[in-house]
Amino acid sequence: MTRFLLTRLARAALTLVFVVTIAFVILRMSGDPALTILTPDAPPEAITAFRKAWGLDQPLWVQYFEYFRAIFEGNLGRSMRDGRSAISIVAERVPLTLALTIPAFLLKLAIGIPAGIYAALHRNSWIDRAIMTVSVIGFTVPSFVLGLMLALIFAVKLGWLPSGGSETWRHAILPIATLSLVGAAVIARFTRSAMLEVLGQPYIRTASAKGVTWRDVVARHALPNAAIPTITIVGFLVGSLVAGAVVVESVFSWPGVGRLLITSVANRDLAVVQCILLLVGATMVAANLIVDLAYGWVDPRLRTASAKTGGG
Questions:
Q1: Do the beta carbons of residue 32 and residue 44 sit within 8 Å?
Q2: What CA–CA distance (Å, rounded) separates 207 from 212?
Q3: Domain harbouring 97, CATH code
Q4: What values do phi and psi take at 41, rounded to 5?
Q5: Residue 248 is part of which domain span?
Q6: What sequence ranges are listed for the domain ABC transmembrane type-1 (predicted)?
Q7: Is 76 within the bounds of a domain?
Q8: Is residue 206 part of a domain?
Q9: Partner residues linked to 85 by β-bridges
Q10: Domain-located, residue 100
């Protein structure tokens, strides 16, 4: 188990370094923050002084190693806009993003898993077809389109809910619905496919032939074996929660981390953008690590095989 865990942790660390490196290089190559923050009409002396003050006059490799050195010291940089710590700026927005993503994630599970299981157990029925039709629609419609449709129906046409802002709990309903419906559709499709594959296995027929009740066959044999592919997609959705919030928060003017990312990119506030991308990368890496550990818990054979092959 120790070797299994250490292998996964090493992979997670390497993935996070790769994510941070790619973000660092792309941000530095996409434009000069001095020209955005000071405007191109600023005196050359002011632009030169700005670049020197923020270390932008140094070679890219020097900036890169200085950035990583600062990370290991717990310093994620300061905002070029107001000089505040980037991590404090991001931390101010995290609770608002969590207020959307946590309820949305729980709703994804509460809707998607039961719907997928029910559709599989009633294959080819009208209920199965209805669930899969809704799932396909939810899977294919982009989240910003779904968000705009919900806002048009429930905010503009019916006037039941506000279309944007974060003043009351009612403002969170449409963003949460947008995030949860898309994810629930994905989970339902994968859960149904996993259940159908397991229900077609010989050991399911054997258990039924031995007189085991159908309820026990499903609960003791089908569900545990269908859990692994479902865990995979659930882990992916956990990792993409912050990334998905970027679009939804922009649509509904919700002042969370996602909206902060959009404004920081537009303002070329490098430290804040890098801090958010590091947060997103860490979330996705942590989610994948939890999925790997969940594999070993659900099916110990995977953990044993991983240990025998050196974590491969």
A1: no
A2: 6
A3: 1.10.3720.10
A4: -80, -5
A5: 86-308
A6: 94-291
A7: no
A8: yes
A9: 78
A10: yes
Place of tokens 């009351």: 168
Helices (H), the chain: 2-29, 33-37, 44-53, 60-72, 86-121, 126-140, 143-150, 173-199, 202-209, 214-217, 223-239, 241-251, 257-267, 270-298, 300-308
Instruction: Calculate the alpha carbon distances from 55 to 7, 233, 263 in Å.
Output: 36, 41, 22
Unique residue bearing structure tokens 């994905």:
186
Distance between CA atoms of 72 and 75, rounded to whole angstroms? 7
Q: Which of 134, 111, 112, 130 is nearest to 122 (CA)?
A: 130
pTM, entire model: 0.77
